[in-house]
Amino acid sequence: MNWIENIIQESPMVQGGLTLMIVGWLAYQIRSLPTKAFRFCRSFFTRVIEVREKHPLYDAWLGLLTDGAFRPGGPRTLEVRTTSDDYDESAATSAFAAGSDDFWARLCGRWCKVSVQREESSGATADLVRRFIINVEVLFGTREDLARMLDAAKARANVMDDRQLVDLCNKYGSSNTMSLPKRAPNTLCLPNEFFDGLELRVRQFSESREDYERLGIPWRLGILLHGEPGTGKTSIAHSLASTLNRRLAVIPLADMRSDEELVSAFEGVREDSIVLIEDVDCAFHQRENEEASGITFSGFLNCIDGMIAPQNGRVLIMSTNHVDRLDPALVRPGRADIKLEVPLLDRDAAMDYVDRLFAHVPNRHDVVNEVMAMERPTSAMLINRLMRQDWRRSTSASQSQAPGPPQVGTRPRSRWGSGIRGGWR
Length: 425
Prior knowledge:
Blueprint: H1 2-10, H2 12-45, E1 46-52, H3 58-67, E2 78-85, E3 88-98, E4 101-107, E5 110-118, E6 132-139, H4 143-157, E7 163-169, E8 175-181, H5 194-206, H6 209-215, E9 220-226, H7 233-243, E10 247-250, H8 259-267, E11 273-277, E12 291-292, E13 295-296, H9 297-305, E14 314-320, H10 328-331, E15 338-341, H11 347-357, H12 364-372, H13 379-387, H14 396-400
Parallel strand pairs: 2-8, 7-10, 9-14, 9-15, 10-11, 11-14
Antiparallel strand pairs: 1-6, 2-3, 4-5, 5-6, 7-8, 12-13
Helix pairs in contact: 3-4, 11-12, 12-13
């Protein structure tokens, strides 16, 4: 140690170097003090809310923050978001929402610094679509303030309560959203208690997450609807989503050209959505047809029941007109937990349907008898025949006696499994 002291004492260059090093370190510490103090105050006096694009309330949060932006006219960067209506492209509506930007907004009486950015890639390879994430940093926010903000987002989302949001998931992991009228259960032409049993079963599943996790069972539900064309399989899925107040995500298998695209489409499904795959028999007939439309049978099974399949309470509905063409591996329990045959038109159900919704049509019972005389009658045949009637010229008196618009969830709910027709298994 003495030789080190001797070198320092005898060498002016070493003394100067040590002095500069100490002065530089002290200057750096002094310079970083404001930043450290700001970070401390920021972590102590602010709270941060993260909203990811797959969350059901993402659009509501985005609209709420856009309207509350401090800058006149909204944030500096705006994104055009389009929602189509009733499969009519001409009726599509567009609106501005905050794009990738940082801005200040006032929400529920609190100042918030908002950051709308894309998420970082989650895997070794770049994702096809990097989804957005909203970070809301609330200044002097309390848990009560955050609860009020959440309630405001829910209230904004409830503005669309009378509309059914349908996401058409594509191969890029994103989706196009359509807004359709909600479908009430009492607008379905089905036997009594047919829909009620399915609704109750899905509600029971949605409330049983702890039971599934305790037993080590993946928390997801598969439903297979099969029957003749025109019996109402798609309408059942639409009405179920409307009744349970869930989004409906449609994945068209015919548009997928590889397993990677199919995985991306499933990843694009928002949380708390009901997934609908129609005419699954057209994509896969038997196991020997391993490839169809570019996707493999094993790849499809992995998406619905493999390790990559979500365990977040996802409800998957598959429909087919030819259940006999499906591979047993696809319809086994765990992939198709509920197999429900949608029956042909039933006379009692048809009479109840026309009395409920077409009471203003004088010859409605004659129409039912006419359709029932056809070979293999379906509800689609009955509805088509009724809509050809000249009932729109009914007198105002008869129209005043017609029942009002059906409300979602107005049918009486039966106990699970009682009086269900159509082959529950």
